[in-house]
Amino acid sequence: MKPWKHTKKVAIVYDRVNKWGGAERVLLALHEIFPDAPLYTSVYDSKKASWAKVFPAVKTSFLQKIPLVKSLHELFGWLMPVAFESFNFDKFDLVISVTSEAAKGIKTKPDTLHICYCLTPTRYLWSLNDYYFKNPPVYFKIFPFFRVISKPNRLVPYKKVDLAVSAFNQLGLPLIVVGTGSERVKLKRSAKENIKFVGEVSETKLAKYYQNAKALIMPQEEDFGIVAVEAQSYGVPVIAYKKGGSLDTVIDGKTGILFDKQNPKTLIRAVRKFEKMKFDKKRLTENARKFSKARFKKEFLDLTKKMLN
């Protein structure tokens, strides 16, 4: 799909530009639709987020000047709403915020259209408040995969990588964990020799992990969970927790297996069941196409045009 030819001035807003994951793929898809739109954010780490260099400009808030904020943004959560309210969008006709936190709190004129693509309510404030306070991150990205894992996502508590590590410690089967984050050291200490941590990898290397994977393990609850769709696009079935986005993206018994309790025993049972099953690669890739970038871009642009008219 070609970029939208229009006379409207568009801006894109994101909470912070300092990592790579599913939300960042959404931003790049929006950039393909609106290539002239600048990206506004609280802080920008050009080394950790080199993907953002495709934007014509990355505009940061006053937080950019504070030492350590690029890597320890959680400590400055109380300033995030102020940071986004400080931006001026008066010259824009359309502002698109992609957010799970404060970016949706921007201020616009009454005649400026603000479309919020809400990724999830902020986990450490709402759905996982107790979990985060009981398991605070150690400051100083993952996704688990059976036989081979992929996805340079964050190794943080809610991802439940510890569940996969515990299960595969008992199974003794090869598990590759891709990604880095606050839980990496603790997870690595608890893992046996059959579990390999490869850190953050390039897109080319990630594709190779997918191509050689037997399954993707998704032990956490996600609102969507793009990694499950990515795996299926490579013909890789998914073993996922039966809640949240996996109910929409994984067809139980057809494109993967869903397990209903987040404990090692249940995951082990799911993996052993998986070992006895066969999956149709064509069915997997067809299911993934329902969530293609092309469809997202078309339907998002259709919605935008409708709302602007």
Automatic annotation (TrEMBL):
Pfam families: Glycos_transf_1. Residues 151-290 form the Glycosyl transferase family domain. The keyword Transferase applies. Keywords: Transferase. SUPFAM superfamilies: UDP-Glycosyltransferase/glycogen phosphorylase (SSF53756). GO terms for molecular function: glycosyltransferase activity. This is Glycosyl transferase group 1. It comes from Candidatus Woesebacteria bacterium GW2011_GWA1_40_43. The lineage of its organism: Bacteria, Candidatus Woeseibacteriota.
